[in-house]
Amino acid sequence: MRPTSLLRSLFREGDVAICRPLRNLDHAFLVPLKEDKSVTTHNGSLSHNDIIGKPKRIYLPFTKSRSSKNPAADKFVVTEPTLDEYVSLCRRRAQPIYAMDAAVVAQMGDIDPFGDEQRHFLEAGTGNGSLTLAICHHLHAANALARHFKDPSLRGAILHSVDRNRTHQEMGQHNVEMYKRGRFSGDVEFSIAESPSAYLEKSGITLHGAFLDLPDPQLYLGDLAKALALEGTIVVFCPSITQLLKCKQTLAEERIDLMMVRAVELPPGNGGATREWDLQAKEWIFAARR
User: Fold this and answer.
1) Domains of the chain
2) Torsion angle, CA of 115/219/248/119, rounded to 10 degrees?
3) Which has the closest alpha carbon to 161: 216, 101, 106, 91?
4) Which of 24, 136, 157, 176 could make a disulfide contact with 142, Cβ separation 3.0–4.6 Å?
């Protein structure tokens, strides 16, 4: 095994671990690892030093004042969290789009990060960063050259994530930076802006895709269409059928140069499935293409 492969298979300071008591595997919690720190739960306490340097799937005992007759009651299993687990358990100040739903939203954007020129994508509404991570999964490969030479100007694709709430964005940016030691940090640029229209006016970029998770998305479709490259896609995620209908109405009334492709419902729960437009839907994705 190469030294770099060995290091990646061990927990290091700065990693995020997920811990589960063996007697209740559903009671999971995230632990950002830092030397000489410890975390206390009702099951007992555990030291970060007992995890750092260990393989990424280990069984360790809790430190308890009194041991239990049940061996499983005094132990926990430590692994590296999946993206779904990370999004579900990470700190938040805004309602998250869970990982499977975020994957559907990103997939509907038909993201193509490769081209003759640098490509730009916009996310309006950073939130807790879950959709940011899903989009960056699609962009990451286009920035391999930039990572190799440590030169951001060589990036092939950039996600511009904007939010008008600084508190929400700071938490979303923190969650992106903590996931897998900041694997996707170089793929995204965070900015504070009152609206996507205001950000586009300031930046002057041409978009190859946009993702809206904010109130009144119909207000920004006209400006986004003007900044959108041919065959670019705008995806709108909204919890209300009224918002969806307003988007469709705005396209027709203002003669915006976009074509509505489809509208799908995300059924309640932890996500992962879709079905076509139903007026009783609870959460919606709307996709339009230039």
Assistant:
1) 10-81 (3.10.330.20), 84-254 (3.40.50.150)
2) 0
3) 106
4) 157
